[in-house]
Here is the input.
Amino acid sequence: MTLQLAISASQRSTRQTVTANWTPIRTENEVEASFAPVMHFDQDCEIYGEGDAAEYYYKVVSGMVRTCKFFADGRRQIDGFHVAGDLFGIETGCEHSLSAEAVSDCSIVAIRRGNADISASAHLLAGLMRVLGRAQEHAVLLGRRSAVEKVAAFLLALPCGAGAKDKIALAMTRQDIGDYLGLTLETVSRTISQLERDDIIDLPSARQIKIKDREALIELRG
Amino acid sequence: MTLQLAISASQRSTRQTVTANWTPIRTENEVEASFAPVMHFDQDCEIYGEGDAAEYYYKVVSGMVRTCKFFADGRRQIDGFHVAGDLFGIETGCEHSLSAEAVSDCSIVAIRRGNADISASAHLLAGLMRVLGRAQEHAVLLGRRSAVEKVAAFLLALPCGAGAKDKIALAMTRQDIGDYLGLTLETVSRTISQLERDDIIDLPSARQIKIKDREALIELRG
DNA sequence: CGGGATTTTGATTCCAATCAAGTCCGGTGG
DNA sequence: CCACCGGACTTGATTGGAATCAAAATCCCG
Here is the structure.
């Protein structure tokens, strides 16, 4: 078992991932390729970096992964959050155009490109299409929309905890949410607080959100 | 030959497409499916609307197409501009999640879904991957970036006129560019004017742009 | 408990949106 | 050929919403 390293998170939005730190585990019950080791990554580990050779694409088994782009000035744009079943790291060219990092401790399988060709598997093709649809929705979300609209849409798109419907456990920080929505962490916080004051959501803790009035959220999302 | 109808373009960003108005032409030299009629659309015609059954996906032969989303309040987000060779209208579900319209007079081929399955054609799969890459880049562009950065990136991504390198003929209006970049038409105009004042581009006319200092643009794009 | 990271909240600033005139340009008709 | 018309574009003045700067509160983990 590997230990979570302390992270020197001083500046805003700067790269703060610990270096790769994963444990390969052979599994029997994996549906994909004949030989797909499951890897475990600790929270905030980098799975791959922008510019790395894209020999594999990946599928999340458990936990959450973020794919993102870093700019020279330290700003970061998160492309997406990926949970169990999601594909990520699919590339046209031979190198990754984004970085991928573990939001929480997580397990993923790597699938060698060409080995199991996407076109060979209807399952993978469907995954690819889903990725495309999400990317397009994300672009629409980032365009001319206000902070409330963005946050409302984000909350509505979030997967609810199994069983307890309308209860959301956030795995990511306000900074992560901001970098995904194109807002600052302060604006995200303020907006969420306002939603609570308006009795639209409940905040037992910062990372626990209960949707009290889904209709109102849908209204705000526009 | 069909006539271009007068358009009542009064409000900003409101739907202003003329109703479908296309001419099917049978062609022999089409590589795709065995039976792919080429259709012609006049400028500003709707090719399909959000919610329409997605029986086909499409490929641009000539001219330019925009795919976009309309909001209840009249705002519009343009998802992308598509030129010769580009695929558009690929959907996961059974209906279109965006609308498609002709930016200029254009010719496109429709490819029936399932008939020529994407997975059956490496060519189509590559097209799909390219679409995905573009959608991701677009999302990154719309996130936390300033007006100048957006416009610079837009100009650099534009296809230059054949032969005369660095000469761009804009097919779209300032409003179109704004709805693509998540800016108002005024901000787009101001930014372009500023670039001219800074001697980075030249504007013989509003729709003709000559890039004088590509390095500077790249610098601004970040 | 203690300490650091995360989150909330407040005050102020700034960039882009909005509101409001003009100007330019391509097309049309006299 | 020129005057005129309408849409597209430019430019100016002002406003507004989110960013930034700053500090306090809270949570989580050892």
